[in-house]
Design a protein that fits this description.
With about 475 residues, the protein is an alpha+beta fold. The chain is built from twelve helices and 20 strands. The strands form six sheets. It has a six-stranded mixed beta sheet with strand order 6-15-16-17-14-18. Strand 2 and strand 3 form a beta hairpin.
């Protein structure tokens, strides 16, 4: 049996501290093997406090309580949308989007005089934050199949350092066995039945290797761009791969000389300190959690049309709000959809000062509107930006999502999850996960375990479980 490729986990030390440029969240604390691995490897997990800084479309800072209320309303509506999708999926129009649901709910709140027009604009602007979860615009999110985007129950935890120890633990056994083949690009996985049923894996160096079973864990995006990768590819599986969408989520880390946006970074005289943690030196006192902002949102900016002509909204997580001694004065921006494509196209092929300038031209209008900003002391030290949208092996994107117009999403996932056991070819990955784990690292892990159990069952019952998907 051959299993190749893994969920997208990668790190970089370009900023100073080593950070994840792939997955950096763990979804759920309930029966989650990733949580168990984190504990085993002493990898710190962080539960964010939802302290929010919100900047409206005109560039003005929204009052704290109004920002908090807006965020709470967004989560309440998301919960309602999920329940509505789950209970009424069969009757919801294919063309209905999650954003349509937000419009309807905001109209009701306005009519009931629970919010005014300005608060409605904030609510609809904040509704776009869902894009950072699925990798594309809220207007594109299918309402009919929104229930499939529900994550595993429990809290969402952030890896406060990086995934290095966890992936090292997972890789320990195959590395010890010496069975990982490096620098091998697979061109085709082909089933052959010439007396003995085998699967041939063809690599770009011209080699062919035969296996009894092959589990393919390439990203969904790779399968969408390489329709001849699986041979054969059943019509129903081809349809499923084509129907389920693939998100475009990117990350941009910006490291500053200080966490100027936090009150905790200001001395009594109003001068900036060196940040929450620099060069391993902890501050003499720990600021209260309420003084540290965790999340920041910029609603469709009308003030940066030269660099952001489509007025894409932005959001970031403040790594200065991590606990001591793990915090550092860095903002982690998440971009998605067309905004991700625009930024990656803008910086692709650039390095050094040219790359820095391109990124700073785009992001300066946003970080410069944060509290306490002073251009002479708050200039970014370094940028680190991902380019998964330009990466062939990642499938030119991030992970699966379900967009407006998809007709049979649940069965599409079931079909990919089933694979082609009749041809000894199986699929695993976040796109074949249980419904409550789609698009997550935990879901990808669960999917691999499930495929292993099914293959084991086949060899214990004489092959009676090789039925094709129906």
């Amino acid at each position: 049996m051959l299993i190749f490729a893994v969920f997208k986990i990668a790190q970089s030390d370009e900023l100073g501290p080593t950070v994840d440029i792939g997955a950096n969240w763990v979804h759920s604390t309930v029966s989650n093997p990733i949580v168990d691995l984190a504990r085993e490897t002493d990898t710190p997990l962080h539960l964010w406090e939802h302290t929010t800084c919100l900047i409206d479309g005109a560039g003005s800072l929204v009052e704290n309580q109004k920002a908090t209320n807006t965020l709470q309303r967004v989560w309440d509506i998301l919960d309602k949308a999920s329940e509505y999708s789950r209970l009424s999926s069969k009757t919801i129009d294919l063309k209905s989007s999650l954003y349509d649901f937000f419009i309807d709910q905001s109209d009701q709140l306005l009519h009931a005089q629970e919010i005014d027009e300005y608060e409605r604009s904030l609510l609809l602007g904040m509704a776009e934050m869902w894009g950072a979860y699925v990798g594309d615009r809220t207007e594109q999110q299918s309402l009919k199949f929104f229930f499939l985007e529900d994550c595993i129950e429990g809290d969402d935890l952030f890896i406060a350092t990086n995934y290095q120890r966890i992936i090292a633990r997972i890789a320990k056994v195959p590395l010890a066995q010496g069975i990982i083949q490096y620098r091998k690009k697979v061109n085709c996985v082909q089933y052959r039945d010439h007396g003995s049923q085998t699967v041939v894996v063809k690599t770009s160096d011209g080699q062919e290797q035969e296996f009894d079973e092959v589990v393919v864990t390439t990203p969904l995006g790779w399968l969408k761009h390489n329709t001849d990768f699986l041979d054969p590819l059943t019509p129903r599986l081809s349809q499923a791969i084509d129907s389920v969408s693939f998100g475009r989520l990117e990350k941009v880390y910006i490291r500053f000389p200080n966490a100027f946006w936090d009150e905790s970074s200001l001395l009594p005289n109003g001068k900036l300190t060196e940040g929450t943690l620099l060069h391993g030196r902890a501050p003499t006192s720990t600021p209260s959690p309420s003084s540290r902002t965790s999340f920041m949102h910029w609603i469709s900016p009308s003030y940066a049309t030269a660099s952001n002509p489509k007025q894409w909204r932005l959001e970031t997580v403040s790594l200065a709000a991590l606990p001591e001694p793990l915090c550092h004065p860095t903002l982690l921006f998440y971009t998605f959809g067309d905004c991700s494509t625009y930024i990656t196209s803008l910086i692709h092929g650039l390095s050094g000062q040219a790359r820095y300038t391109a990124l700073d031209t785009f992001f300066n209008p946003y970080y410069s509107r944060l509290p306490n900003y002073r251009p002479e002391t708050c200039r970014p030290v370094k940028y680190l930006a991902t380019e998964w949208c330009k990466d062939e092996l990642s499938g030119y994107g991030s992970y699966c999502n379900f967009q407006v117009g998809i007709e049979d999403a649940a069965n599409d996932v079931r079909c990919m999850r089933h694979g082609m056991p009749e041809y000894h070819i199986w699929l695993a990955g976040e796109h074949t996960a249980p419904f409550d784990g789609l698009g997550t690292l935990s879901g990808a892990y669960f999917s691999g375990e499930e495929v292993a159990k099914r293959i084991t069952q086949i060899y214990s019952d004489g092959g009676t479980s090789r039925r094709p998907f129906s």
